[in-house]
Amino acid sequence: MTFIETENLNLKVPSKENLPKWTEWINSLAVRQTVNSTLRPKTAEMQWNWIQKELDSHNRILLEICDKLDNSFLGVVSLSDIDHNIRSAQISTISPFKKNKNNQYSIYEARIAILNYAFNELSLNKVWAATVYPENKSYMIKNMCIGFEIEGINHDFRWYKNQPKIGLHYFVTKSIFDKKKINSSRLENLLSKKNKNLNEKKLYKIISFLQIK
């Protein structure tokens, strides 16, 4: 069942059809390295019970990212910690497989769609997230291209192999989203080489200012 539709994607209510792939992803080493909540193994039944619980929650929106043409399962996008009093939520995505030319930016198309939903249908004001750095540097740059700003750092955001990992906290508000005209801009323009280079320089400048070595 499609909940949000974009030019190339259907963001769907989770179903058992894609459960095996979803369960495979959350048990993979690639995901465990960056997502704390996947450190413990899960069976398909455990994952389905978790999905149903989250769908019943009032502070979570959980959607599958599916290709419009062939209905292939591309990932998951979520809003969590939805707080209507302070009008904020956390955004997250999982899509650990290797992309091709046609779906390489599907995650960012899905993120823009759920941001639009958050700001205009849920009337939220701020959406935030965090990611490990420098492992997810390229991912962070692309998120900056679709409107996100750096909010701060955490020098021991998470631990991996007994070593602390730096976390970058980032956010976007409705006013930033609207001012940058993210929803009405072509994705290929937002993620153009020129824009990525500009945001890479901006990120390095922020990192340098924060004295991260």
CATH topology: Aminopeptidase
SS summary, helix count: 8
Helices and strands: which structural class?
alpha+beta
CATH class assignment: Alpha Beta
Uncertain segments are: none
Count of extended strands:
8
| Biggest sheet architecture | 8 strands, mixed
Number of domains: 1
Backbone CA Rg: 17 Å
The percentage of residues in β strands lies in 25-35%
Strand line-up in the sheet with most strands: 1-2-3-4-5-6-8-7
**Range of helix content:** 25-40%
The first-to-last residue Cα distance is 46 Å
H/E element sequence: EEHHHEEEHEHEEHHH
Q: Oligomerization state of this entry?
A: single chain
Mean pLDDT equals: 93
Label the overall shape.
globular
CATH architecture: 3-Layer(aba) Sandwich
Brief rundown of the structure:
This protein has 213 residues and is α+β, with helices and mostly antiparallel strands. The protein has 8 helices and 8 strands; from the N terminus they run E-E-H-H-H-E-E-E-H-E-H-E-E-H-H-H.
Describe it.
- The chain is of the alpha+beta class and 213 residues long.
- It has a single domain, classed as 3-Layer(aba) Sandwich (Aminopeptidase), CATH 3.40.630.
- 36% of the residues lie in helices and 30% in strands.
- It is built from 8 helices and 8 strands, in the order E-E-H-H-H-E-E-E-H-E-H-E-E-H-H-H.
- Strands 1-2-3-4-5-6-8-7 form an 8-stranded mixed sheet, with helices on both faces.
- Strand 7 and strand 8 form a beta hairpin.
- Helix 5 crosses helix 8.
